[in-house]
Amino acid sequence: xxxxxxxxxxxxxxxxxxxxxxxxxxxxxxxxxxxxxxxxxxxxxxxxxxxxxxxxxxxxxxxxxxxxxxxxxxxxxxxxxxxxxxxxxxxxxxxxxxxxxxxxxxxxxxxxxxxxxxxxxxxxxxxxxxxxxxxxxxxxxxxxxxxxxxxxxxxxxxxxxxxxxxxxxxxxxxxxxxxxxxxxxxxxxxxxxxxxxxxxxxxxxxxxxxxxxxxxxxxxxxxxxxxxxxxxxxxxxxxxxxxxxxxxxxxxxxxxxxxxxxxxxxxxxxxxxxxxxxxxxxxxxxxxxxxxxxxxxxxxxxxxxxxxxxxxxxxxxxxxxxxxxxxxxxxxxxxxxxxxxxxxxxxxxxxxxxxxxxxxxxxxxxxxxxxxxxxxxxxxxxxxxxxxxxxxxxxxxxxxxxxxxxxxxxxxxxxxxxxxxxxxxxxxxxxxxxxxxxxxxxxxxxxxxxxxxxxxxxxxxxxxxxxxxxxxxxxxxxxxxxxxxxxxxxxxxx
Length: 494
Prior knowledge:
- By secondary structure, this protein is α+β, with helices and mostly antiparallel strands.
- It has two domains: 2-247, ATPase, nucleotide binding domain (Nucleotidyltransferase, domain 5); 305-437 and 467-490, Nucleotidyltransferase, domain 5.
- It contains 17 helices and 23 strands.
- The strands form seven sheets. Strands 17-18-16-15-21-22-23 form a seven-stranded mixed beta sheet.
- Helix 14 (419-429) links the parallel strand 21 and strand 22.
- Helix 10 (240-247) packs across helix 15 (440-451), helix 11 packs antiparallel against helix 13 (376-400) and helix 14 crosses helix 17.
- The longest helix has 25 residues, at 376-400.
- The termini are far apart.
């Protein structure tokens, strides 16, 4: 029994085919091989064309289906970049480029709504300030592009758009709405009051379907484009960070997942409606939430983590044409440098407004650069350590809200491919890091298997998920990282 997972990121689309009987991924592919372009026509803006996403889905599926018969796919699951805004008209035509997660233009609209509605209302009902999330981005369109706003039939999150292209139907999930501050936790329904406050018709919200369970099915048009059977179930949908946690079997209160792709995230599951009145961390419905067993994901995000490292590699490659700069080569250079990078510090911001900094965007910074002592290896190591330190700031907030964890689960991918990064992460947070051979596309496929009813329980579904390795904190190293982290924090506001 085969299941297809689609993981829509801002860098690429990855798809995986998962064998439900063996509990293993049998084939994966991504498109494009290079990073997707993020359009920034004005400072602080970040946009992508949703139709480009669908093209990438088609191309990635074509690569996988060279080796797997698409007619044997039994269900489809979707993971997607969170917080984006996609707008379509009555003909399901895209009205403007999607305003994606790292776009900062809507901050003032979210902050104004928080003041007008009151912090007590926002944190009791939304568990977050409207900040820079999907709802605030819709408000920006209403105020700045009224002609487009008047033509809107439905608003969607990026994953809802992919589901629309697959099924011809428009729907969303409660977990998705919660990611956009469009969910009322007290009433367990859409946050109609926020939209009414902005004079936005609640009919723009899609119909809701379960995050895990039957949502829709593949239509004839999409079946022809992808090679799937018409009528194939679409049975799972979750934002990328909830899905990353799901893929690591992080489903119960007290469990924590981490990821460090373009952005970096620490994601803890709670059975309580936690909120941070400073909006440094955010709470959303977890994908397995239910009225009987509430599950919330408390999310710490740093926008510029993997992006900082990829920027460094890309910039070096452009400076040295004909030289292939690889991540393993950079890691090798960093391994020659001691913990603390000989005093060189790096702050990995500059990829949009940072929630951990209360929606400030101070830019990325190198600190204490000594042209006589520091070389490229110092810069590489300082970058990786700085990413860890930024994430640890959020982990400290998570612990202050009552969360605690001795173990953090992560997929062995992206920044966690680096032994230096993983060691720094374990010794700065003080938690053991369990590394797994899984990713978001496989998680979405596994979710499709659960949502379609193939598995009888979560335990059965995750029986094939095995730990590759565990990195434990070491007291001697923990002290050294703590000293460097304290120095890094001193420079944060200067």
